[in-house]
Amino acid sequence: MISAWFWRLTVGLSIVATSATSAATPSDGDTFGYRAPPECPNRAEFSAQVAARTTSWLSPSSPFAVTVTVDQDARGLVGRVTFTRAEQRTVRELGAAGCNELVQALAFIVAVLIDPHAGATPLPPASEGRPPPVYLLPAPAVRPFAAPLWFIAGPEAAVETNVTGDGAVSERLFLGIGRGDRSLWLSSARLVFGRAVSHASSPMSGASAEFVRETARVEGCLLRLTDDGLAFEPCPFVEFGRIRAVGIHRGGDVTHNELWGSLGLVLRPTWTFSRRLVLGAGLGAQLPFRSYHFAFTGEPEVARTPTVAFEASLCLGLHFP
Predict the structure, then answer these.
(1) 261-273 pLDDT, tens per residue?
(2) Which pairing describes strands 65-73 and 32-35: parallel, antiparallel, or unpaired?
(3) What CA–CA distance (Å, rounded) separates 74 from 66?
(4) CATH code, 93
(5) Would you call 284 helix, strand, or coil by DSSP?
């Protein structure tokens, strides 16, 4: 059973994130950011490519911000354009084998985003003169190829078989840190606090027992694979905490505490929407460091922790900045 506070937190997080998104304005308005490998056309040459296609690059009808990045990955060169105007954000991505062709295509995309009537004319040869480069404002001081840090926090609900072998609902809160928004190695890490409650009954007397498992987990994701807002990460983790077993008996309840520890792996797909909300799922397995069994005195065991435990989870996170 999910607690009322957990539902309130989830709903409140959705409302706050949606409100913040609807009221957001570009933080880098009127800027032109450009990053590419040294062998590619530089920032001034890219600017001239756009100016050759539309005069609105020189004299925009309304403020805008544009960031262009060209990166090398396993597929070759990948270019991305992020264009923001009037609280609307557009992202376009292209791949190509050659840098010159890719930059020309990206310049055309920028020109069309600024001016839908922009021409497809490429940059003229140097002998014919080139339009001057245009800098809306100095580009943000970003270290080349750096993956910016971001943070995420939110609630998570899981069904797990850690204690009794039956499915128990776990309520969790997580805090995470990551870098970049593209496919890369060592992508993110999370700290997760969880509480799960399960029950079992003695087959002999019918006496019942309650098991409360409270843990802290550290996850380190090995890599991230992304595709248009979707991401996938495999994340090994280590978990520590305690199991509190409470035997409910007419002669008085009996409480017993045991330390808990495990190693595991969770596979986590996520979807980023509304710019700041992240919906995620998880499917994982873990190996407890020790196997515990619980029983009333003189009776068969009530529960035994499984050798391998499984879990399935859903989470909703707020991504910032």
Answers:
(1) 999 999 999 998 8
(2) parallel
(3) 26
(4) 3.30.160.100
(5) strand
